[in-house]
Write the C-alpha cells for this entry.
Amino acid sequence: MSAVTRIVGDLRQGWGRYTVIGVPYLFLIVLFTIPFLVVLRLSFSQADGASFADLTSYTDGILHIQIKLANYIYLATDDLYAETYLSSLKFAAINTGLCLFIGYPFAYFMVRSPVSMRPALLMLVSLPFWTSFLLRVYAWQGLLDDEGIINGLLMWVGIIEEPIQMLRTSFSLIVGMVYTYLPFMILPLYSNLVKMDMRLLEAAKDLGCGPLKAFWLITVPLSKNGIIAGSMLVFIPSVGEYVIPTLLGGPDNLMIGRVLWDEFFANNDWPMASSVAVTMVLLILAPLVIFNRYQSQTGGDR
Amino acid sequence: MNARNAQADAGFVRIDRLTKRFDDVAAVDNVSIEIAKGEIFALLGSSGCGKSTLLRMLAGFETPSEGTIYLEGQPVSAMQPYNRPINMMFQSYALFPHLTVWDNIAFGLKREGMPKAQIEERVEEMLRIVQLKKFVKRKPHQLSGGQQQRVALARALAKRPKLLLLDEPLGALDAKLREETQMELKNIIKNVGVTCVLVTHDQDEAMTMADRIAIMSEGRFRQVGLPFEIYETPNCRFVADFIGKVNLFDGALTEDAPDYCVVTTPEGVFYVNHGVTGTEGMDVTVAVRPEKIGLSSSAPTDTSRNAVTGTIVTNSYYGSASIYHVQLATGKRVLVSCEHSSRHDEHFQRDDPVWLCWEPESLVVLRS
C-alpha cells in the first residue's frame, strides 16, 4: 500500500518537475534548435528555383547525399565576407568596451548610493525600454543629422560655421550602439556589485590598500562574473546588429547583419544567406562556450 | 625594564577624550583610557553601546568627532587605516573569497612591498602559528568556520601590527567550538605578545580572554577593571546587573561609618563591611551574588551574618550545584546558587521554609 502511494507520489513529483524543466526546453527546441537546423539545412542546399533540392535521395538502391559546400567556400574565399565579419566583431568589441567603461562606474555609483535611492536609479536605467527601440534609434537621426539639433545648437552658439557630419559615420553607429546596449551592461554589473560585502574593502584598507588599489584588487576580481555576463549580453547581439547600422551607420561601416539582409531579401539567395547566418552563430558561440566552461570551473567561487 | 619604559608601556595605547557623533547622537561619548603593551583589553556591552564605533575609530574606519588616539605616544587618529600599524580581525572575518588561504595571509605583506622570500617566510610562520599548513591552497569557502577564523587571525597578525583589533572574534562560531577556540585564541595572542583590543557582547568571552574589561553603555565606560573586580565589586547597578546574575535590594543608607555601613531595605537590615561616602538616608541598592548566599533550614547561630527567611519556589539540581528561587516575605524573589562541595549537603524542595544568610563582606552597596 505504502509502496504504491510512494510510486504514485514519485510519479506525480516527477511530472511536476519535468513540466517545469520541460517548458523552457520546449521553447528552446521549437524556437531555436529547429529553426537553426532549418537554416543549417538551407545553407547546404542547392537552390532549385523557388524550392530547395533534398539533401538525400534514394534511387536504384543508391543513397545520394548531396551537400553543397560552395556557399561556405565562397564565404571563405571572398574577402568581403571576412572583412565584414571582422568589422562586425570590431564594432561589437568597441561597443562592449565603451559600455563597460561607462557602465561600470555607473553601476558602482548605483550600488554606493543610499538604499532608498536605488529603485529610482534602476528605473532610470530601464526607462528607455518604455519607448520602442526603433523610435529611439530614429531619434538619434534627429539629433545627429547635419540639420539636426546638435549641429543646429553648435552653429547657433557659434562654435562651428559648417555642420559637422556625424550621421552615417562610425561615430553615429557607435553612439547608437552604446546608447542602446548600455542598460544590458549596467544591470548585470549592478546585480553583481550589490551583492559584494563592503567589509572586504575595509579589510583591504586595513591591510594597507589605498582606495584605488582596493578597487583593483578586490572589487574588480569579485565583479568578474558581472563583467563577463554584461560583456556577453552586449557583445553577442551587437555582432549581428542590423537596425542600428542601417539607420545610423555609414556606407562603409560593414556589418554582417546588413549583408545577411541583403543576401536574403535583395539577392534572394537563401542558401548563401543561411551559410552567412550559420557562420555568424558559430563565431558568437565560440566565446559563449569558453565563458560557460570558465563559469562551471569557478562556479563554486562565491 | 626601567621605570621609564614601564611608564611608556602602560600608556602604549592612549585614548584621550574620544567622542564620535552621528547626527548629534554620541555613539562614543568622551571616552578616555590607557591600554598597556601586551594587554588584552575587552570592550563589553550590548549592541548599540558604542563599542564597535570605538573599535572602528581605532582601526581608522571612523573619524573621531573629538579627541585623539595615541599609539606609542604618536597621534594616529588622523592617519588613514592603510597607514596605521593596526590590523583588525573582522566580524565574520571578511576573508577575500577569490584568494587562497596563502594569498589572504600574504595580502597585507604584498602591499607593504616586502621581498618575496620574506613574504613566504612570514606566511609560513603564520600558518604554523594557526596550524593551517595543510590548507594553503584552499579558498575560504572550502574551510570550516573555525579554520576561517584562524585564517582571519593569521591575516591580521601577518603584518606584525602594534595593535590587534578583534571584532566579535568568536561570534560566528557555534557554542562548543567557541569554548575551545577562546583559549586557543588567547594563547596565540599571548604568545605573539601583541596588544589587543577586543569587542564582544559575550561576557564569558570577555571574562576568559581579557586582562581588563571595560563595560560600555550609551557610549561611555561604566566600569573598567580586571575581570574579578568587575564581577566582585561592580561600581553601579548597571554593571552588577550586566555581568553575571545578581540579587538587588533597594533601600536607604541608615548608618555610615568608615569601615562599615547599614542599609535598611523592606527585606531586612543589612550590614556591609565597607563604608560608603554618602549621606545617611540616601537611596542605595545592595547587591549580592547568588553563590554568596547560604541556605539552611534553621536560623544561623552567627549573628554577624545577614539573614532573612523565605520559601523555596523552584529548585533546579545541576549535579555540581543547585539553583533555587526563594520568595521572601515581601514577595521579592531571590536567586540562590549552592555549590555541592560535600555529598551530604542539604537539599531543599519546593515550599520548604528556609533561612538565607550571607557575610557582610559579600554585599556591595551601589549608588544610583
Q: What stands out?
A: The domain at 245-367 of chain B is CATH 2.40.50.100 (OB fold (Dihydrolipoamide Acetyltransferase, E2P)).
